[in-house]
Amino acid sequence: MATLVAPDHLSVVEDAEALRKACQGWGTDEKAIIKVLGHRNASQRKQIRESYEQLFEEDLVKRLESELSGDFEKAVYRWVLEPEDRDAVLANVALRKSETDFKAIIELSCILSPEELLGVKRAYQNRNKHSLEEDVAARTTGDLQKACISYTFTYRYNGEEVNARLASSEADILHEAIKDKAFNNEEVIRILSTRSKAQLNATFNHYRDVNKTSITKDLLGESANDFQKALHTTVRCTNDPLKYYAKLLCDGIKRFGTDEDSVTRVIVTRAEKDLKDIKEVYYKKNSISLDDAVAKETSGDYKAFLLALLGKED
Ligand SMILES: [Ca+2]
């Protein structure tokens, strides 16, 4: 379930006017911006952007970029874009980091639906004038490159239909490769990058039943390299996205002050989807609510905005 609290009946014109007022003149009324945008769903935000453009002949996204700054600006910018466009921005940010954040790329292929991934790839091309695959190839090397390119190329079957015999034979292939530390076996990449989520989960279950240990444990072992970590992320994103996101938030919150990106990414991308479920998993794992953890580690408008998306009224 979503955490976003967005009322049904609204005047987009009033919203656009409120945002214009918040931006006009010296300084910015950040609270007014949070009050509107922190409580509107994707289709409402789209209408507000359109209405704002019509009324004031100005691009709302550009205006907000120039009015706001820091982590708050980044979060609002990501939030106000259409989901596919936002994911294209997130992919680009991940690829341009000095150390490529391959997790964000794997999330796209293993958590989004195939249709959504296609939409992100289209949006990515429109924004960057080259393809996501080209940029993934340019920013990665070796086995990690092979895997990430396969992930971004793939258009997985999205249904629930599972072939149990295939799950059994592919669990064996994965186990053989992992046992021999042949993580870069082409079969491993083929299986993880082309099979549907349902099929992969059947394979992972079979792996655990037969080997009495989970594939995630076997993949990480000691001194795991980036490629092993990428495979590990793949399995976790496929197997239990809620748990994966809760862990990402937990790690990100620990690193607050140095890297807010992953926390912003999870909250902004999941607030309209399943952030409530992620919050439950987070609480069970950490015995502190996500709201409290975020409130403790952040401040100012950034904090107020994240809490609004988390559904916590102030
Ligand atoms: Ca201003």
From TrEMBL:
Ca(2+) 2 binds at residues 253, 255, 257, 297. GO terms for cellular component: cytoplasm; plasma membrane. Ca(2+) 1 binds at residues 25, 27, 67. GO terms for molecular function: calcium ion binding; calcium-dependent phospholipid binding; phosphatidylserine binding. Ca(2+) 3 binds at residues 295, 298. A pair of annexin repeats may form one binding site for calcium and phospholipid. This is Annexin.
